[in-house]
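SAMPLE LOG
Freezer: B-3
Tube label: C17
Construct: single chain, 441 aa
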Amino acid sequence: MRIPNLVLSTIILFISNLIVRILGFLYKIFLSRVMGDVGLGVYHMVFNFLMICIALTTTGIPTALSCLVAKESALKDKKDANIFFISTLYVAFFISLLISLLISFNSTYLSFRLLQDENLNLFILSICPAIVIITISNVLRGYFYGIKKVMVPAIGQVIEQVTRILFVFLLAMYISDKAMICYVTLLGISIGEVTNVVYMSICLYKESSLYNKFTIRLRDFYHASIETLKMATPITCNKMSSIVLQSVSSMIVPSRLVLSGLNYSKSMGLYGILNGMVMPFVYLPFTIGSALVVNLIPSISQEIALNKYKQVKMKINYALALTIGVGILSSIFFYFLGEELCLIVFNNKTAGEYLKAMYLAPLFLCLNQTLSSILHAIRKEVIASINTILGMVIQVIALYFLLPLPHLNIYAYIYTITATAILTTILHSIVLIKALKEIKY
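STRUCTURE (predicted):
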């Protein structure tokens, strides 16, 4: 097993993700100062809507592509790798274009529903190009992950973030109207992604494993598209279900907390502390986990294609060991130093108490991420999605009944997230153990 390659790729993506997160954190501070509370609220509302729109095209399709391209690359089949890449690019492009056009034609209605003002449809229109551009960017990224050239998308992510920040920063210096700054900020998403696509396209043109002149037969295009969508659909449904269930969860928490004896203002404040101060720390270990996962899926797919089942088992063990190590260190750190950390960063003692109470969540949430990715790589994506959705449904039901209990109130949210993360980890583990027993080493 070429563990050093997997380690190197993970380190590269970790550094890239870390740079992007730091720049993003500074960018958010800048936006809060130049846009004001209302402008920032509009921006996040439209941005969250954009994330829901692109979840259809950027969740399952690039992951499936990286897996399938990795498999064909392992078999030294350039032709099929090219067919999967080009057919996926066309399919993703047309789906994203259709979504973009539907949004643009209904921008007035959407602006009324989202922003309570149909005259603000310009903000909705500003994200339409981003839907197509981000989709193309993610497909290109998935291809490079599949051929194990992670440096290209890693550099591309940094270029995208830097370009977006510079674009908004330079224009904001000459614009005083906060509404216009909000519009420019939304446009900056497309500008940043365009530079990313241009950079990756240049690297793609120089890529020796891709034929610059290539013709696909309609039958091959059809079969490749079906194979990609067959793998991508469960992953996409999983993500969309999670988005919907998380939205339902966020909507019921404040209202159910009121039944525990708290007033609505206090309930919103506690929920805001959890999501705005505690959860960013809880998800911090995902910086390493996401870097590992991106490399793990194509890496395992290649080994399976070559029937190197011992290497598959070793890589799975390595990934789980790394995830458990990072998760345990994070949990220990948050348990013993969570209160001090929140006091230093947010000057909020309550946030520290909640972070300490959630000390087990980082470990099991990270394990869920890694286990789910392993199951996707070994083509158990359907059952992995079912496990995740089941966990989310149980979480929503538990929140509904436990939040009104006076002796629990907001701690019901903390305990429920931790418990459902543990349950999902157990379900994923059972599926993985059974799947590994079926593999002959």
